[in-house]
Amino acid sequence: MAKPYWQGVFPAATTQFRKDLSLDLDATAKHLEALIASGVSGLIMCGSLGENQTLSPEEKRQVVERAVKVAAGRIPVLSGVAEMSTNLACQYVRDCEKLGAAGFMVMPAMVYKGDVRETENHFRKVAAATGLPWMLYNNPVGYTIDVTPEQFARLADVKNLVAIKESSANTRRITELRIEVGDRYSLFVGVDDLILESSILGIDGWVAGSGIAFPTENQRFWNLTREGRWDEARKLYAWFYPLLKLDTHVKFVQYIKLAVQEAGLGSEWVREPRLPLVGEERERVLAIIRRGIANRPKLS
User: Fold this and answer.
1) Residue 134, CA atoms < 13 Å, CB-side half-sphere
2) What is the pLDDT of residues 199-232, one digit of tens each?
3) Is 137 a residue of the active site?
4) Residue 48: which of 76, 82, 18 has the closest Cα?
Protein backbone atom coordinates (compact mmCIF):
# COMPACT_ATOMS: atom_id res chain seq x y z
CA MET A 1 0.00 0.00 0.00
CA ALA A 2 1.30 3.46 -0.89
CA LYS A 3 2.19 5.73 1.98
CA PRO A 4 -0.59 8.29 2.64
CA TYR A 5 0.18 11.78 1.38
CA TRP A 6 -0.58 13.24 4.81
CA GLN A 7 -0.83 11.25 8.01
CA GLY A 8 -0.75 11.74 11.78
CA VAL A 9 -2.20 14.43 14.00
CA PHE A 10 -3.07 17.70 12.26
CA PRO A 11 -4.61 19.81 15.04
CA ALA A 12 -7.13 22.49 14.21
CA ALA A 13 -5.54 25.46 15.93
CA THR A 14 -7.41 28.31 17.56
CA THR A 15 -6.92 31.91 16.58
CA GLN A 16 -5.97 33.79 19.72
CA PHE A 17 -7.47 37.20 20.54
CA ARG A 18 -6.81 39.82 23.17
CA LYS A 19 -9.55 40.80 25.59
CA ASP A 20 -10.53 43.65 23.25
CA LEU A 21 -10.90 40.95 20.55
CA SER A 22 -8.04 42.22 18.44
CA LEU A 23 -5.89 39.57 16.78
CA ASP A 24 -3.09 38.24 19.00
CA LEU A 25 -0.53 36.69 16.68
CA ASP A 26 2.08 36.29 19.42
CA ALA A 27 -0.27 34.21 21.59
CA THR A 28 -1.28 32.18 18.56
CA ALA A 29 2.39 31.52 17.79
CA LYS A 30 3.09 30.46 21.38
CA HIS A 31 0.35 27.83 21.23
CA LEU A 32 1.58 26.60 17.85
CA GLU A 33 5.04 26.05 19.31
CA ALA A 34 3.54 23.88 22.07
CA LEU A 35 1.64 21.84 19.48
CA ILE A 36 4.76 21.35 17.35
CA ALA A 37 6.77 20.33 20.42
CA SER A 38 4.23 17.58 21.16
CA GLY A 39 5.05 15.87 17.88
CA VAL A 40 2.12 16.75 15.61
CA SER A 41 2.50 16.10 11.90
CA GLY A 42 0.87 19.28 10.61
CA LEU A 43 -1.13 22.37 11.55
CA ILE A 44 -4.50 23.56 10.29
CA MET A 45 -5.12 27.27 10.67
CA CYS A 46 -8.34 29.22 10.14
CA GLY A 47 -10.66 26.27 10.35
CA SER A 48 -13.96 26.23 12.21
CA LEU A 49 -12.12 26.12 15.53
CA GLY A 50 -9.92 28.94 14.25
CA GLU A 51 -13.05 31.11 13.88
CA ASN A 52 -12.49 31.55 10.17
CA GLN A 53 -15.73 33.39 9.51
CA THR A 54 -15.03 36.06 12.16
CA LEU A 55 -11.68 37.02 10.64
CA SER A 56 -11.26 39.72 8.04
CA PRO A 57 -9.61 38.70 4.75
CA GLU A 58 -6.39 40.43 5.84
CA GLU A 59 -6.44 38.79 9.27
CA LYS A 60 -6.75 35.32 7.75
CA ARG A 61 -3.70 35.93 5.65
CA GLN A 62 -1.80 37.30 8.65
CA VAL A 63 -2.59 34.17 10.65
CA VAL A 64 -1.40 31.88 7.87
CA GLU A 65 1.76 33.92 7.29
CA ARG A 66 2.65 33.80 11.00
CA ALA A 67 1.98 30.07 11.26
CA VAL A 68 4.25 29.42 8.29
CA LYS A 69 7.01 31.39 10.00
CA VAL A 70 6.52 29.50 13.28
CA ALA A 71 6.57 26.10 11.59
CA ALA A 72 9.68 27.10 9.63
CA GLY A 73 9.44 24.05 7.41
CA ARG A 74 9.30 21.57 10.29
CA ILE A 75 5.75 20.49 9.48
CA PRO A 76 3.20 21.50 6.83
CA VAL A 77 0.81 24.38 7.54
CA LEU A 78 -2.64 24.12 6.00
CA SER A 79 -5.35 26.75 5.98
CA GLY A 80 -9.06 26.23 6.18
CA VAL A 81 -10.95 27.62 3.18
CA ALA A 82 -14.46 28.72 4.12
CA GLU A 83 -15.31 31.58 1.80
CA MET A 84 -18.77 32.74 0.79
CA SER A 85 -18.20 32.24 -2.92
CA THR A 86 -16.16 30.01 -5.19
CA ASN A 87 -14.35 33.03 -6.62
CA LEU A 88 -13.27 34.24 -3.17
CA ALA A 89 -12.11 30.73 -2.26
CA CYS A 90 -9.99 30.59 -5.41
CA GLN A 91 -8.41 33.95 -4.63
CA TYR A 92 -7.74 32.87 -1.04
CA VAL A 93 -5.87 29.69 -1.99
CA ARG A 94 -3.76 31.63 -4.50
CA ASP A 95 -2.83 34.16 -1.82
CA CYS A 96 -2.01 31.50 0.79
CA GLU A 97 0.16 29.66 -1.71
CA LYS A 98 2.23 32.85 -2.06
CA LEU A 99 2.44 33.09 1.74
CA GLY A 100 4.02 29.65 1.97
CA ALA A 101 1.10 27.45 2.98
CA ALA A 102 1.65 23.76 2.26
CA GLY A 103 -1.98 23.00 1.45
CA PHE A 104 -5.60 23.50 2.39
CA MET A 105 -8.63 22.09 4.15
CA VAL A 106 -11.51 23.11 1.90
CA MET A 107 -15.10 23.42 3.13
CA PRO A 108 -18.17 23.88 0.97
CA ALA A 109 -19.05 27.49 0.18
CA MET A 110 -20.62 29.00 3.28
CA VAL A 111 -24.26 30.07 3.69
CA TYR A 112 -25.60 28.83 0.34
CA LYS A 113 -26.18 25.09 0.47
CA GLY A 114 -25.35 23.78 -2.96
CA ASP A 115 -26.73 20.64 -4.56
CA VAL A 116 -24.45 17.81 -5.67
CA ARG A 117 -23.53 19.43 -8.99
CA GLU A 118 -22.86 22.82 -7.43
CA THR A 119 -20.84 21.36 -4.57
CA GLU A 120 -18.60 19.34 -6.85
CA ASN A 121 -18.14 22.36 -9.12
CA HIS A 122 -17.03 24.44 -6.13
CA PHE A 123 -14.41 21.91 -5.08
CA ARG A 124 -13.12 21.45 -8.64
CA LYS A 125 -12.79 25.19 -9.23
CA VAL A 126 -10.90 25.72 -5.96
CA ALA A 127 -8.62 22.77 -6.75
CA ALA A 128 -7.82 24.24 -10.16
CA ALA A 129 -6.83 27.56 -8.55
CA THR A 130 -3.83 26.06 -6.75
CA GLY A 131 -1.11 23.55 -7.37
CA LEU A 132 -1.00 22.68 -3.68
CA PRO A 133 -2.53 19.54 -2.15
CA TRP A 134 -5.75 19.82 -0.19
CA MET A 135 -8.12 17.98 2.10
CA LEU A 136 -11.89 18.03 1.60
CA TYR A 137 -13.73 18.69 4.85
CA ASN A 138 -16.96 16.69 4.91
CA ASN A 139 -19.13 17.83 7.82
CA PRO A 140 -22.82 17.34 7.04
CA VAL A 141 -23.68 17.83 10.72
CA GLY A 142 -22.29 21.36 10.74
CA TYR A 143 -22.62 22.43 7.09
CA THR A 144 -25.59 20.25 5.94
CA ILE A 145 -23.81 19.24 2.73
CA ASP A 146 -22.81 15.59 2.69
CA VAL A 147 -20.10 14.49 0.27
CA THR A 148 -20.75 10.78 -0.14
CA PRO A 149 -18.30 7.99 -0.94
CA GLU A 150 -19.74 7.91 -4.47
CA GLN A 151 -18.93 11.59 -4.89
CA PHE A 152 -15.38 11.01 -3.67
CA ALA A 153 -15.08 8.35 -6.36
CA ARG A 154 -16.10 10.91 -8.98
CA LEU A 155 -13.66 13.47 -7.55
CA ALA A 156 -10.76 11.00 -7.69
CA ASP A 157 -9.57 12.57 -10.95
CA VAL A 158 -8.75 15.80 -9.07
CA LYS A 159 -5.05 15.11 -8.62
CA ASN A 160 -4.32 17.57 -5.82
CA LEU A 161 -7.26 16.37 -3.70
CA VAL A 162 -5.20 14.09 -1.48
CA ALA A 163 -7.15 13.70 1.77
CA ILE A 164 -10.60 13.59 3.36
CA LYS A 165 -11.57 14.97 6.74
CA GLU A 166 -14.54 12.77 7.55
CA SER A 167 -16.79 14.38 10.17
CA SER A 168 -20.18 12.87 9.43
CA ALA A 169 -20.16 11.27 12.93
CA ASN A 170 -20.93 7.97 11.19
CA THR A 171 -18.03 5.56 11.60
CA ARG A 172 -19.59 3.34 8.91
CA ARG A 173 -18.28 5.91 6.46
CA ILE A 174 -14.70 4.85 7.08
CA THR A 175 -15.38 1.34 5.81
CA GLU A 176 -17.64 2.62 3.03
CA LEU A 177 -14.94 5.00 1.82
CA ARG A 178 -12.31 2.28 1.84
CA ILE A 179 -14.59 0.03 -0.19
CA GLU A 180 -15.49 2.80 -2.65
CA VAL A 181 -12.13 4.54 -3.16
CA GLY A 182 -9.58 2.24 -1.51
CA ASP A 183 -6.42 4.11 -0.56
CA ARG A 184 -6.90 6.91 -3.09
CA TYR A 185 -7.09 9.48 -0.27
CA SER A 186 -5.49 9.92 3.12
CA LEU A 187 -8.42 9.44 5.48
CA PHE A 188 -8.62 11.74 8.49
CA VAL A 189 -11.31 11.84 11.16
CA GLY A 190 -12.44 15.10 12.71
CA VAL A 191 -14.88 13.95 15.42
CA ASP A 192 -12.86 13.71 18.62
CA ASP A 193 -15.05 11.32 20.58
CA LEU A 194 -15.02 8.78 17.74
CA ILE A 195 -11.26 8.64 17.39
CA LEU A 196 -10.77 5.28 19.12
CA GLU A 197 -13.39 3.51 17.02
CA SER A 198 -12.15 5.23 13.89
CA SER A 199 -8.57 4.18 14.57
CA ILE A 200 -9.61 0.56 14.88
CA LEU A 201 -11.40 0.75 11.52
CA GLY A 202 -8.28 2.15 9.86
CA ILE A 203 -7.52 5.83 9.33
CA ASP A 204 -4.42 7.79 8.38
CA GLY A 205 -4.84 10.90 10.47
CA TRP A 206 -6.75 12.93 13.01
CA VAL A 207 -7.78 16.57 12.78
CA ALA A 208 -7.76 17.03 16.54
CA GLY A 209 -9.86 19.61 18.39
CA SER A 210 -10.02 19.26 22.17
CA GLY A 211 -6.54 17.78 22.25
CA ILE A 212 -4.98 21.15 21.45
CA ALA A 213 -5.39 21.90 25.17
CA PHE A 214 -3.58 18.65 26.05
CA PRO A 215 -1.15 18.16 23.17
CA THR A 216 1.20 15.70 24.89
CA GLU A 217 -1.62 13.34 25.90
CA ASN A 218 -3.28 13.78 22.51
CA GLN A 219 -0.13 12.74 20.68
CA ARG A 220 0.50 9.83 23.06
CA PHE A 221 -2.99 8.49 22.44
CA TRP A 222 -2.50 8.70 18.68
CA ASN A 223 0.87 6.95 18.90
CA LEU A 224 -0.66 4.12 20.93
CA THR A 225 -3.23 3.51 18.20
CA ARG A 226 -0.50 3.46 15.56
CA GLU A 227 1.42 0.88 17.56
CA GLY A 228 -1.64 -1.30 18.17
CA ARG A 229 -1.32 -0.93 21.95
CA TRP A 230 -5.07 -1.02 22.41
CA ASP A 231 -5.25 -1.75 26.14
CA GLU A 232 -3.09 1.29 26.88
CA ALA A 233 -5.03 3.36 24.36
CA ARG A 234 -8.37 2.46 25.97
CA LYS A 235 -7.06 3.37 29.41
CA LEU A 236 -5.87 6.79 28.23
CA TYR A 237 -9.09 7.27 26.27
CA ALA A 238 -11.20 6.73 29.39
CA TRP A 239 -9.50 9.76 30.94
CA PHE A 240 -9.62 11.77 27.71
CA TYR A 241 -13.21 11.04 26.67
CA PRO A 242 -15.06 13.74 28.68
CA LEU A 243 -12.59 16.31 27.33
CA LEU A 244 -12.93 15.05 23.76
CA LYS A 245 -16.69 15.49 23.95
CA LEU A 246 -16.16 19.23 24.29
CA ASP A 247 -15.54 19.12 20.54
CA THR A 248 -19.03 17.84 19.70
CA HIS A 249 -21.19 20.72 20.96
CA VAL A 250 -22.41 23.76 19.04
CA LYS A 251 -20.26 25.87 21.40
CA PHE A 252 -17.15 23.77 20.77
CA VAL A 253 -15.07 26.90 20.11
CA GLN A 254 -15.91 28.41 23.49
CA TYR A 255 -15.49 25.06 25.26
CA ILE A 256 -12.11 24.28 23.73
CA LYS A 257 -10.77 27.80 24.12
CA LEU A 258 -11.72 27.66 27.80
CA ALA A 259 -9.80 24.37 28.06
CA VAL A 260 -6.81 25.96 26.33
CA GLN A 261 -6.92 28.78 28.88
CA GLU A 262 -7.16 26.43 31.85
CA ALA A 263 -4.19 24.47 30.50
CA GLY A 264 -2.13 27.67 30.28
CA LEU A 265 -1.81 27.66 26.50
CA GLY A 266 -3.96 30.64 25.52
CA SER A 267 -7.09 32.60 26.35
CA GLU A 268 -10.82 32.00 26.08
CA TRP A 269 -11.68 35.18 24.16
CA VAL A 270 -13.95 34.53 21.17
CA ARG A 271 -15.36 36.91 18.61
CA GLU A 272 -19.03 37.75 18.44
CA PRO A 273 -21.58 36.46 17.78
CA ARG A 274 -19.96 33.92 20.10
CA LEU A 275 -19.64 35.05 23.71
CA PRO A 276 -17.57 33.61 26.58
CA LEU A 277 -19.42 31.09 28.72
CA VAL A 278 -21.29 32.28 31.80
CA GLY A 279 -23.33 30.89 34.68
CA GLU A 280 -24.17 27.21 35.10
CA GLU A 281 -22.87 26.29 31.66
CA ARG A 282 -19.46 27.79 32.39
CA GLU A 283 -19.24 26.03 35.76
CA ARG A 284 -20.25 22.71 34.22
CA VAL A 285 -17.65 22.91 31.46
CA LEU A 286 -14.98 24.13 33.87
CA ALA A 287 -15.69 21.16 36.12
CA ILE A 288 -15.03 18.77 33.22
CA ILE A 289 -11.82 20.56 32.29
CA ARG A 290 -10.51 20.87 35.85
CA ARG A 291 -11.33 17.25 36.62
CA GLY A 292 -9.33 16.27 33.56
CA ILE A 293 -6.38 18.42 34.62
CA ALA A 294 -6.49 17.10 38.20
CA ASN A 295 -6.50 13.50 36.97
CA ARG A 296 -4.04 14.08 34.16
CA PRO A 297 -2.16 10.82 33.61
CA LYS A 298 1.55 10.64 34.28
CA LEU A 299 3.16 9.77 30.98
CA SER A 300 6.56 8.12 31.08
Assistant:
1) 32
2) 999 999 999 999 999 999 999 999 999 999 999 9
3) yes
4) 82
Report domain extents, the chain.
8-233
Q: Which is catalytic among the residues 60, 92, 143, 165?
A: 165
pLDDT, tens digit, for every residue of 123-134?
A: 999 999 999 999
Q: How confident is the model at residue 1 (pLDDT cuts 50, 70, 90)?
A: very low
| Residues, the chain | 300
Fold of the domain spanning 8-233: TIM Barrel (3.20.20)
Interval 262-291: pLDDT, tens: 999 999 999 999 999 999 999 999 999 999
Using alpha carbons, select from 97, 108, 299, 126 the residue that is nearest to residue 215.
299
Beta carbons within 10 angstroms of residue 91's beta carbon: 14
**Are the C-beta atoms of 219 and 230 separated by less than 8 Å?**
no
Q: Is 165 a catalytic residue?
A: yes
Residue from 137, 143, 185, 255 carrying the catalytic annotation: 137
